[in-house]
Amino acid sequence: MDEVAKLFEGLRVADVSDGMDAVGLRDVGLVDRAIRPIWRGARIFGRAITARYVPTNEVVPTMSPEEYAEYSRRWYAEKCPYPFLQIAQPGDVLVLDLSGLEVGFWGSNVALAAKKAGIVGVIIDGGCRDTFEIEKQRCPVWARHIARTTVIGRLEFAGMNETINCGGVKVRPGDIVVADDDGVIVVPREVAPEVAKWARKELEADKQARRKLYEELGMPLDETV
Predict the structure, then answer these.
(1) What is the pTM of this model?
(2) What is the number of alpha carbons within 13 Å of residue 189 lying toward its C-beta?
(3) Which of 110, 111, 143, 138 is nearest to 128 (CA)?
(4) Do the Cβ atoms of 44 and 121 come closer than 8 Å?
(5) Is 162 helix (H, G, I), strand (E, B) or coil?
(6) Is the distance from CB of 59 to CB of 105 less than 8 angstroms?
(7) Crossing angle, helix 13-22 and helix 192-217, to 10 degrees?
(8) Residues 103-152 pLDDT 10s
């Protein structure tokens, strides 16, 4: 895994937000709260790889189901490929700009393929479907929409590993992404070590204070303290 990304291991989104405040980047990197986890309990951190998809102008012609099957195959191969699966490195977080559309770009099949490629999670300014299987597979996904449709006749590939907009945040390849139940935050890579340092201090202070309260309340200690 990326050495800078490793500095964020175990940090909560709240800690990282406080770390950003500490270095003067107040409210920077906070991805739109509408982009939420598909299932609770997922936590990820890692280096961003990015991809961008845009609405198509192509009108799907009338055809037989057999013809549509071939049309669909060509759409995935030519109009809407998933090339990030070939370039991902273990520990990467995939960040997708789908123009905010309610289109089911992500599903249970590609989620497993991404996991096999080493992608630890995906942040989608757009739609995810197959959400029951996504949760059952424990594939971490944050998305703007729970969707039903396919990309065929709806989305086209526009670029990969370039600067994108995800939930109102500028995301560049190599920036650090942290996500949990509270949402998603993106840390500019050049300030990431300093942000991680202050975020770690916040986490440790919080754990120490909460541990004391656990003990005073007679609560059994857990992994959060």
Answers:
(1) 0.95
(2) 14
(3) 143
(4) yes
(5) coil
(6) no
(7) 130
(8) 999 999 999 999 999 999 999 999 999 999 999 999 999 999 999 999 99
